[in-house]
């Protein structure tokens, strides 16, 4: 994951057709018909988000992955950088909220979607029946209060809704003068019930599964039971659904509950890390700790991209370190998979897989804070003493038998690969004396590749002359593994937005790992500059966590290097403003 340096909104350079596509009525016609119970989570729908203005992007849309890593050189590095547009990373720097940042499509992906747009349309002219859209929901608000109350009484989500109301309405409310009041005004009560009522909860949770889950797949959908998970988790998932909604007013309404939700969650003794409170707390099961970890991670993500500046600082300086400390108390057992798992062994296995995934994404957030805020890492390589997650298609299945079939279909040798922990893979990746080969799956899942390149990114944030060789070797090996994973990790959007029938093919933001490789390569090339130029580049971006300024300077310098290399001059005189 990564975090914006600021909240700058994108300008008016977006094209008119993007605004038309984003209209609510048009998007309603693209949504698939729900299947199964109303509460059941559904897969993601294709994401239609505008890219950053193409006029801001330097370089071509067609990627040039450079020469073979065996022959990497400074000239090759600058050549690769001159071809990379860094669209995704620049969009991250511009900020604008979690929806705009994560549900982002590069110009290449947009072009693909335009060319294949007809394949996304329903095969008939009629809209799907029984689908609750945002428009339908707000129309339904006109119904009488008595009618809504009767509907809620028979809603399976009513117990969770009531628990949320009680938590928020009993929590003291801070007024502008800093004084706490136990009595909330009537308007506050109405807003709380209106936002967290059963029907709205269901709609927001549906948006979570469709438009956010693919970016952070740490919860196993098939075994997820809303009636059994902590109330705090239901609150956070519904807030995420609101922030990725096409209706911008949803985010406005959700933002008022962010700080209260964060405060309630981190008042839990296990997450607060207060010794006295933890001693008084009854022992927690492993599953309870997992749910607290998952919820805390998602709260950190929400506040980082949607909270106020003070909320973001509080997350980085207080909440996230507490989450890291708590996560160290949850071990990964990684039991072996069997061809025919019992129900008990399947539950244990999928619980452990969620632990592995949650720990992996906690590390990715740690890496984001290092890259974009120049923060020292809270998680070291030795902390990554657990296996890589299984590929997403395997994680989505319902039972042990289906899981075994999915593994055989996508990567039969993956169970053997699981014996290598992430920390061991990183050591092999960086070993300058080992053979220039590294055992890896024939198809490296996008998440695994992103984890490894994030380790390289953390290394690049704290470069020294003694670590340059290790980083260069790790980048060369990562690129070779990443290429071996194609088309699994291809830039081709055909694997990302294939059809409405298989929307879960999306790999989320981790598909942009090649941009992170180029950013690490760029920082590496800085070390080869003259001391004066290196000092200017570091001051203009690297040491401040300002990725945007660093990219602009590097793009200008890489273009100069390519131009001079074409004329045979290997030492161009470049400046970094």
TrEMBL record:
One of its GO terms (molecular function) is DNA-binding transcription factor activity, RNA polymerase II-specific. The keyword Zinc applies. Residues 205-416 form the Xylanolytic transcriptional activator regulatory domain. The keyword Flavoprotein does not apply. One of its GO terms (biological process) is DNA-templated transcription. It is found in: Nucleus. This is Xylanolytic transcriptional activator regulatory domain-containing protein. It comes from Penicillium daleae.
């Amino acid at each position: 994951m990564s975090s914006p340096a600021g909240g700058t909104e994108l300008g008016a350079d977006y094209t008119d057709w993007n605004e038309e596509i984003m209209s609510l009525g048009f998007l309603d016609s693209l949504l698939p018909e729900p299947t199964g119970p109303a509460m059941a989570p559904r897969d993601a729908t294709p994401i239609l988000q505008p890219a950053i203005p193409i006029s801001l992007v330097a370089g071509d849309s067609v990627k040039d992955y450079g020469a073979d890593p065996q022959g990497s050189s400074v000239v090759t590095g600058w050549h690769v950088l001159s071809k990379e547009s860094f669209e995704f990373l620049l969009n991250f720097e511009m900020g604008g909220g979690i929806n705009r940042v994560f549900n982002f499509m590069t110009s290449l992906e947009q072009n693909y979607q335009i060319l294949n747009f007809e394949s996304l349309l329903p095969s008939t002219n009629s809209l799907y029946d029984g689908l609750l859209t945002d428009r339908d929901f707000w129309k339904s608000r006109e119904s009488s209060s008595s009618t809504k109350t009767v509907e809620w009484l028979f809603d399976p989500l009513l117990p969770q809704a009531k628990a949320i109301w009680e938590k928020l309405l009993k929590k003291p409310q801070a007024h502008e003068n800093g004084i706490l009041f136990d009595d909330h005004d009537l308007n506050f009560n109405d807003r709380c019930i209106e936002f967290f009522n059963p029907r709205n909860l269901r709609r927001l949770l549906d948006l979570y599964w469709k438009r956010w889950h693919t970016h952070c797949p740490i919860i196993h959908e098939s075994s997820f039971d809303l009636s059994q998970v902590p109330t705090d988790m239901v609150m956070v998932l519904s807030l995420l659904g609101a922030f990725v909604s096409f209706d911008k007013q949803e985010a406005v309404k959700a933002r008022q509950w962010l700080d209260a939700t964060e405060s309630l969650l981190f008042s839990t003794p296990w997450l607060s890390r207060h010794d006295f409170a933890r001693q008084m707390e009854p022992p927690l099961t492993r599953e309870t700790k997992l749910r607290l970890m998952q919820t805390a991670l998602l709260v950190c993500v929400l506040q980082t991209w949607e909270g106020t500046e003070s909320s973001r600082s509080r997350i980085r300086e207080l909440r996230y370190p507490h989450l890291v400390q708590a996560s160290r108390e949850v071990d990964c057992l990684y039991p072996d998979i069997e061809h025919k798992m019992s129900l008990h062994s399947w539950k244990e296995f999928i619980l452990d897989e969620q632990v592995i995934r949650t720990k992996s994404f906690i590390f990715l957030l740690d890496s984001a804070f290092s890259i974009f805020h120049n923060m020292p890492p809270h998680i070291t390589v030795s902390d990554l003493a657990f296996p890589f997650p299984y590929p997403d298609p395997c994680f989505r299945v319902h039972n042990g038998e289906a899981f075994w079939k999915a593994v055989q279909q996508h990567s039969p040798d993956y169970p053997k690969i699981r014996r290598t922990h992430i920390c061991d893979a990183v050591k092999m990746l960086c070993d300058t004396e080992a053979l220039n080969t590294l055992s890896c799956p024939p198809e490296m899942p996008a998440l695994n590749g992103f984890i490894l390149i994030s380790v390289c990114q953390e290394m690049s944030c704290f470069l020294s002359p003694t670590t340059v060789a290790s980083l260069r070797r790790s980048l060369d090996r990562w690129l070779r593994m990443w290429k071996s994973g194609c088309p699994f990790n291809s830039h081709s959007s055909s694997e990302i937005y294939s059809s409405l029938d298989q929307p879960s093919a999306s790999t989320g933001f981790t598909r942009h790992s090649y941009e992170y490789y180029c950013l690490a390569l760029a920082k590496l090339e800085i070390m080869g500059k003259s001391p004066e130029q290196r000092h200017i580049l570091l001051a203009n971006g690297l040491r401040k966590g300002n990725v945007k300024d660093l990219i602009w300077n590097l793009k200008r310098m890489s273009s100069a290097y390519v131009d001079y290399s074409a004329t045979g001059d290997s030492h161009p005189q470049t400046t970094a403003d």
